[in-house]
Amino acid sequence: MLYLKSFTFNPFLENTYIVYDDSKKAVIFDPGCYEKYERDELTFFIHDQELEVVALINTHCHIDHVLGNAFIKQTYGVPLWIHSKEKPVLKSVSVYAPSYGFHAYQETEADELLDNHQTFKVGNEELEIRFVPGHAPGHLVFHHAGTGICIAGDTLFQGSIGRTDLPGGDHQTLLQSIRQEMFTLPDETKVYPGHGPSTTIGFEKIHNPFVGKNARF
Questions:
Q1: Where are the extended beta strands (E) located within 10-157?
Q2: Does residue 182 carry a pLDDT above 80?
């Protein structure tokens, strides 16, 4: 069985996720924790649930999803996994972080790359990896068939999609990624996005104004 815990951190209201299985092995996705109280909230849950953090993954490397990377790596001694196309995206964060008020941001580098991985193990459970560029050049989503969940980063939101006006973004590429890689998942798949509430593939296929059957944009 795979379990998911969500947190909402930083001024961007970014969703950070911890997924873990019955063996208590845990993976942290997109740690947006920057302030001490946010870090404390995350570490308290890990301690309370007696989890063993084994990996850190960025679905993509925009600032709001990587603010806690250094803290997680230092606290738990785990590797950071990203797609290779996100390396320059991650590198650039230290340049513009101060302009957003994040003067204490600590730069990190990837330890492992997910380019050639089709799956990722969380304890005894397995996540399917899908490549979904458009919002960011090396964006990945992670699907667990057993529980029907998808950690979607900033690709598909409830009633919306990720913005594509940032460096490396492309609107048509994102639409194609969603239709080919996400809308081919079962309709009942629960989508956990990088911001806002969860949704389902079936709901978005019908109602999403950007990629649904009656898309207006």
A1: 14-21, 25-29, 52-57, 80-82, 112-113, 119-122, 125-131, 140-144, 149-153, 156-157
A2: yes
**Average predicted confidence (pLDDT) for the chain:** 97
Report the pLDDT value the prediction gives residue 217, as an integer from 0 to 100. Answer: 75
Residue with tokens 């299985």: 21
What's the domain range around 170?
2-207
Write out 158-217 in H/E/C secondary structure: CCEECCCCCCCCCHHHHHHHHHHHHCCCCCCCEEEECECCCEEHHHHHHHCCCCCCCCCC
In this structure, is residue 217 part of a structural domain?
Answer: no
Distance CA 14, CA 10 (A): 6
**Closest among 126, 122, 183, 111 to 152, alpha carbons compared:** 183
Q: How many domains does the chain contain in total?
A: 1
Q: Which segments of 49-113 does DSSP mark as H helices, in order?
A: 63-66, 69-76, 87-96
Q: Which of 169, 168, 172, 174 is nearest to 152 (CA)?
A: 174
At 125-156, the pLDDT tens digits run 999 999 999 999 999 999 999 999 999 999 99
